[in-house]
Amino acid sequence: MAQPTILVFDSGLGGLTVFREIAKARPDARLVYAADDAFFPYGAHEEAALVARVVPLMGDLIARVAPELVVIACNTASTIVLPQLRAGYAVPFVGTVPAIKPACAGSKTKRVSVLGTEATVQREYTMGLIRDFAQGCDVTLVGSARLAPLAEAALRAEPVADAEIVAELAPCFVDDGARRTDMVVLACTHFPLLLERLTRLAPWPVGWIDPAPAIARRVVDLLGPPQPGVRAEPAEALFTSGRVSANLANALSAFGIKAAASAPAI
Question: Considering the entire predicted model, what is its pTM?
Answer without folding.
Answer: 0.91
